[in-house]
């Protein structure tokens, strides 16, 4: 099945991708709102019989979107389990892995030369860092709170700290001179340091030359101003959408 549209259902965003012969041509982020979906269908000129593939980490929204697609005359494959995807899952509980992590791994595997390991970094509501080994298998990784969750926790679990917006501003990671800047610096330091340490740990676990690192996710701009020492990162905003497209194409 080669879909015309792929949809990645996140915790806070619904990301659509319009497929081209060689990948993802257009990407748009939408709210979980059928009115917004209908407007995007009209904008892209999608008609009855359009083939869709859907997956993600928010099952109620994914179920609603799949049902909505069928209600407008489309056909939809809904990926519900990571074990459906055409990639070995070398972890303790394959069915319990977040399917978004596996979509990203599947896409990364397709973008690297043969026998080359890859690391994916997805910065969203949560941050995940995942390893694809040189044989092309998903080997697991790590999960920690995303920048927005950190900011909300500081606001909600302290008496006086404010909620700050995180924009990936180039303030640097040195001492901040006011509270808002100190919170931004602290959160961005946690994300940058955590990601860097986990990438290094993943690459130590797969000691093959020439490993590639891919970064994606709606909050990935937090990492943008910073250079991670000894790590070359490639920004791939449509990484998970590409993984959904590849999984759907493998269905035949």
Provide structural commentary.
It is a single chain. The model has no long low-confidence stretch (mean pLDDT 91). The chain has 2 domains: 76 residues, Nucleotidyltransferase, domain 5 (2-Layer Sandwich); 150 residues, Nucleotidyltransferase, domain 5 (2-Layer Sandwich), CATH 3.30.420.40. With 252 residues, it is α/β, with parallel strands linked by helices. Helices cover 34% and strands 23% of the residues. The radius of gyration is 19 Å and the shape is globular. The longest helix is centred in the last third of the chain and has 27 residues. It contains 6 helices and 10 strands, in the order E-E-E-H-E-H-E-H-E-E-E-H-H-E-E-H.
Short structural description:
With 252 residues, this protein is α/β, with parallel strands linked by helices.
- Indicate the mean pLDDT: 91
CATH architecture of the largest domain: 2-Layer Sandwich
Structural class: alpha/beta
Strand order of the largest sheet: 3-2-1-4-5
Furnish the topology, listing elements before pairings.
Layout: E1 5-9, E2 14-20, E3 23-30, H1 34-44, E4 51-56, H2 59-71, E5 75-78, H3 99-111, E6 118-123, E7 126-132, E8 138-145, H4 147-156, H5 179-205, E9 212-216, E10 233-235, H6 239-249
Parallel strand pairs: 1-4, 4-5, 6-9, 9-10
Antiparallel strand pairs: 1-2, 2-3, 6-7, 7-8
Helix pairs in contact: 3-6
């Amino acid at each position: 099945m080669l879909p015309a549209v792929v949809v990645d259902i996140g915790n806070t965003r619904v990301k659509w991708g319009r497929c081209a012969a060689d990948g993802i041509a257009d990407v748009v982020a939408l709210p979980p709102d059928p009115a917004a979906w209908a407007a995007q269908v009209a904008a892209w000129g999608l008609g009855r019989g359009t083939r869709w593939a859907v997956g993600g980490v928010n099952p109620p929204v994914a179920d609603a979107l799949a049902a909505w697609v069928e209600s407008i005359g489309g056909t939809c494959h809904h990926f519900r389990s990571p074990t459906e995807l055409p990639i070995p899952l070398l972890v303790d509980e394959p069915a319990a892995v977040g399917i978004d992590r596996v979509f990203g791994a599947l896409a990364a595997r397709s973008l690297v030369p043969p026998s080359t390991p890859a690391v994916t970094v997805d910065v969203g509501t949560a941050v995940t860092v995942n390893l694809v080994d040189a044989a092309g298998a998903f080997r697991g990784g790590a999960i920690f709170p995303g920048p927005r969750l950190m900011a909300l926790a500081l606001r909600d679990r302290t008496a006086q700290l404010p909620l700050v917006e995180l924009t990936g501003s180039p303030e640097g990671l040195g001492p901040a001179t006011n509270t808002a800047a100190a919170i931004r610096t602290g959160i961005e330091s946690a994300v940058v340091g955590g990601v860097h340490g986990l990438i290094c740990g993943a690459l130590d676990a797969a000691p093959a030359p020439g490993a590639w690192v891919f970064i994606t996710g709606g909050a990935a701009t937090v990492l943008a101003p910073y250079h991670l020492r000894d790590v070359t990162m490639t920004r791939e905003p449509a990484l998970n959408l590409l993984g959904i497209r590849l999984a759907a194409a493998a269905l035949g």
